Amino acid sequence: MAAAADYRAGTEDYRDYLRRLQPGDRLLLEPGDYRQGLPLSNLSGHAGQPIVIEAADSAAPPRFIARPRANTVSLVNVRHLVLRHLQLDGGNLPVDAVKAEGHSRYADFITLEHLFIHDHAASQQNVGISTKCPAFGWVVRNNRIERVGTGMYFGDADGSDPFVGGVIEGNRITHTLGYNLQIKHQKFRSSEYADRYDTVIRYNVFSKQDALPGPQARPNVLLGHVPLTGVGSEDRYLVYGNLFLHNPSEALLQVEGRVAVYDNVFINGSGDAIRIQPHNDVPRDMDIFSNTVLASGTGIQVRQAEGAAYRQRVVANVVAAVTPLRGGEAAHNLTLDYQPDWLDVAVAELTPRLLASQPSRRLPDGLVRELAAYPGWQGASRPGANVAPALLRTLDAAQP
């Protein structure tokens, strides 16, 4: 096996290096404006030896400028690939910034880090990061995405092309026409991925604070169900430590399937915070706990399909809303009246402010032990007490 190599390239010659990249190689891109896109096809690194394409100087990231009729970063049949410290400027052309293309057979173990994606907002259909083929083991970390049609869109509208075992963390997604993040429902899963996988969504900022109501209104985040039977049917989404901010006409989070939602902060001065409801199927077993919610509409709403046998537990949340809780198996929650003045409180101070006037209420030891099995949750003596540290990690991780 040839030794891994480092290559340096600039705006004129960088495409000459793309097909020669082997496991462990790095392509270091000099500062400048790159106008011919980044088409990556039939490239495979190895576990522990990915192919890396990144800025030669992280303080001066190369700027890829969108071109008509071509997605800027195009992924086709690639594995173990890392892209980091790049700027993707859409110029509001009707293209995507990063796309695993629909004619690709796979795009596995892709890591996207420290990308600045902006101005892909010709329509809601233009996406910052999108997959339209089976995608396994993605890590999408510490990216800034703003002024786009949709921030991230994983999967396909018909439930094909599953997104499996991903980690989405430390991103800041703002100023989207539609979703900040959508992961589509999954109809089936290849036997190649027969184990159970969690997709982790943590320490992100999802904001539609300046969005306008209208036909393009969407929740900040929408999570569809995993396969209903067979391979993948036991998979879960773990959603924790995130900050959800404002939406003019939809909820901040809408989910179905198998989900755990905990240690998040939800702030919506224009409506609802969390909606658990049928979309392409029904809500299945899920836990919603240790969140802080401030909403001018409904704080946490659970709509279960009639006759369904699944459990949706709503436990140990702090909810200040016009209608704090509706539906679900609720226990040990602290509910308060909605106070619009609290919208102006510093986010990291919100949970302590809500708890300040309330007597301490210890959770049952058995419940604490059960919830402590979830990653990132270390137990709490009273509802919501673990939210503030998680939020501080979110704000630190999401700094541009």
Automatic annotation (TrEMBL):
Q: Which domain of life is it from?
A: Bacteria
Organism classification, top ranks? Answer: Bacteria, Pseudomonadati, Pseudomonadota, Betaproteobacteria, Nitrosomonadales
Organism (species): Thiobacillus denitrificans
Q: Which InterPro entries match?
A: PbH1, Pectin_lyas_fold, Pectin_lyase_fold/virulence
For this entry, the protein name equals Right handed beta helix domain-containing protein
